[in-house]
């Protein structure tokens, strides 16, 4: 099949303006037969030269998809060890943050703090793709991974997000956030 | 059709290192407190549900690559996919008590993976394809014009899949890249079989159109 012919951009290689094959059938109905093993062709599709030609073309096209499907994505080196270690730490470590109080305990799950931070940063138009919290000197550390919209200053956005997270977590959870680390992991271009 | 990956919708049995619940059981040489044993998923799940971290870690090690495979197809980015994998296992540990075992373990894991991947994907207008991974794949051990053409074609597939709208990408990836049945895809995505078929139809049409020049 050529990519430069008049039918380029169509799924089906149809020849008529209404998108049908010359035999009157929709070529799209053949796409399922090309992609789903075991699909049974009806009598017309089995003998019609237009349908058969289109089916052959669609099967060639779908073979590219199958080739990619059969080629597993490359696995980053050390993935399993890294994930196992992180999961081990996550499920064994205490996952609550203690809110200071003189009369009774208030403990808030780290996932709640992370969700609060995530929403605060998201609401500033800075898409968050990950958020983690750790407790280490000098205190509660919030790490947010963001996508930076193209054209906006990373430094300005990070400082704005930092102040907003500190204020928001203090207001909603009663916790002092010591550090907000902002990691810009990607950039988003509008359109 | 044979695949390069392990079948994932069965109760797998293979040799793993697991903690021994029985003090009198034989131990593997040089591995204190552990033994090499053939352990089914269902046994590991039951142990993990009762709080056995070691059993859970065997599941993590057994299925992380499979979960990553789905996550990277859905997100288009290796780093994001790795974060998704971690999120999936933490969620799996948290929700394991509610996993009743009526669905296969991988169906459940795929559901968690799809939810986590799509949640991360909603942060973006479009999912970019991991350029590093593409470069790595394009410059891999394959050689010759035909191999290069094949690599480019497969790269085009990855781009085309990444550019599908989320509502079509998930069923397409599950059905055609993970070999999940239509019915199972519906269970994973919480959709009727009819809706899955309709979305597969639209997804196939979009993919075929995008890939026309490569045929």
Summarize the structure.
The complex is a heterodimer of chains A (191) and B (215). Chain A is an alpha+beta fold and 191 residues long.
How many DSSP-defined strands of chain B? 2
Q: Major sheet of chain A: size, sense and barrel closure?
A: 3 strands, mixed
Distance between the termini of chain B: 21 Å
Order of helices and strands of chain A: HHHHEEHEEHE
The CATH topology label of the largest domain in chain A is: Alpha-Beta Plaits
Largest sheet of chain B: 2 strands, antiparallel
For the record, the CATH architecture of the largest domain in chain A stands as: 2-Layer Sandwich
Quaternary state of the chains: heterodimer
Strand order of the largest sheet of chain B: 1-2
**Number of helical elements of chain A:** 6
Radius of gyration of chain A: 28 Å
Strand content of chain B: 5-15%
Secondary structure tally, helices of chain B: 9
Please provide the ordered H/E string of secondary-structure elements of chain B.
EEHHHHHHHHH
Write a structural description:
The complex is a heterodimer of chains A (191) and B (215). Chain A is an alpha+beta fold and 191 residues long. Chain A has 2 domains: 1-71, no CATH class; 92-188, Alpha-Beta Plaits (2-Layer Sandwich). Chain A has 6 helices and 5 strands. Chain A has helices at residues 28-35, 43-47, 49-69, 79-92, 110-123, 154-173; strands at residues 96-99, 106-109, 128-136, 139-149, 177-188. In chain A, strands 3-4-5 form a 3-stranded mixed beta sheet, covered by helices on one side. Chain A has a two-stranded antiparallel sheet with strand order 1-2. In chain A, helix 1 packs across helix 3 (49-69) and helix 5 packs across helix 6. Chain A is elongated. By secondary structure, chain B is mostly helical. In chain B, 61% of the residues lie in helices and 7% in strands. Chain B has 9 helices and 2 strands, in the order E-E-H-H-H-H-H-H-H-H-H. Chain B has helices spanning 41-49, 53-75, 78-95, 105-121, 131-138, 144-162, 166-177, 182-189, 193-210, and strands spanning 13-19, 34-40. Chain B has a two-stranded antiparallel ribbon with strand order 1-2. In chain B, helix 2 (53-75) crosses helix 4 (105-121). The radius of gyration of chain B is 19 Å and the shape is globular. Mean pLDDT of chain B is 75; it is low at 1-10 and 17-37. The interface between A and B is large, with 52 and 54 residues.
């Amino acid at each position: 099949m050529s990519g430069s012919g008049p039918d380029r951009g169509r799924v089906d290689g149809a020849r008529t303006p209404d998108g049908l094959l010359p035999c009157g059938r929709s070529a799209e109905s053949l796409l399922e037969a090309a992609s789903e093993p075991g699909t049974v062709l009806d009598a017309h599709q089995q003998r019609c030269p237009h349908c058969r030609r289109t089916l052959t073309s669609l099967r060639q096209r779908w073979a590219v998809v199958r080739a990619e499907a059969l080629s597993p994505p490359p696995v980053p080196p050390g993935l399993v060890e890294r994930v196992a270690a992180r999961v081990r730490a996550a499920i064994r470590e205490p996952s609550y943050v203690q809110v200071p109080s003189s009369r009774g305990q208030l403990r808030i799950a780290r996932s709640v703090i992370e969700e609060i931070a995530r929403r605060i940063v998201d609401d500033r138009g800075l898409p968050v793709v990950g958020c983690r919290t750790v407790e280490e000197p000098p205190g509660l550390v919030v790490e947010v991974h963001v996508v930076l919209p193209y054209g906006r200053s990373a430094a300005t956005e990070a400082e704005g997000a930092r102040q907003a997270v500190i204020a928001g977590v203090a207001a909603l959870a009663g916790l002092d956030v010591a550090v907000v680390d902002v990691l810009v992991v990607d950039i988003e271009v509008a359109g | 059709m044979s695949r390069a990956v392990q079948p994932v919708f069965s109760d797998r049995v293979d040799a793993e290192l697991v903690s021994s619940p029985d003090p009198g059981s034989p131990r593997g040489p040089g591995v204190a407190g552990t033994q090499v044993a053939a352990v089914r998923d269902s046994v590991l799940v039951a142990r993990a549900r009762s709080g056995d971290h070691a059993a859970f870690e065997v599941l993590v090690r057994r299925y992380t690559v499979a979960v990553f495979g789905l996550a990277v197809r859905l997100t288009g980015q290796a780093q994001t996919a790795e974060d998704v994998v971690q999120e999936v296992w933490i969620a799996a540990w948290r929700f394991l008590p509610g996993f009743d075992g009526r669905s296969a373990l991988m169906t459940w894991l795929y559901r968690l993976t799809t939810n986590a991947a799509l949640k991360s994907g909603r942060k973006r207008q479009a999912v970019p394809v991991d350029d590093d991974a593409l470069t790595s794949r394009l410059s891999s051990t394959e050689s010759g014009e035909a191999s290069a053409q094949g690599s480019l074609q497969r790269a085009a597939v990855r781009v085309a899949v990444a550019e599908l709208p989320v509502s079509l990408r998930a069923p397409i990836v599950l059905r055609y890249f993970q070999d999940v049945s239509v019915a199972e895809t519906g269970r994973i995505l919480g959709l009727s079989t009819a809706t899955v078929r309709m979305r597969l139809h639209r997804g196939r049409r979009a993919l075929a159109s995008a890939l026309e020049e490569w045929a």
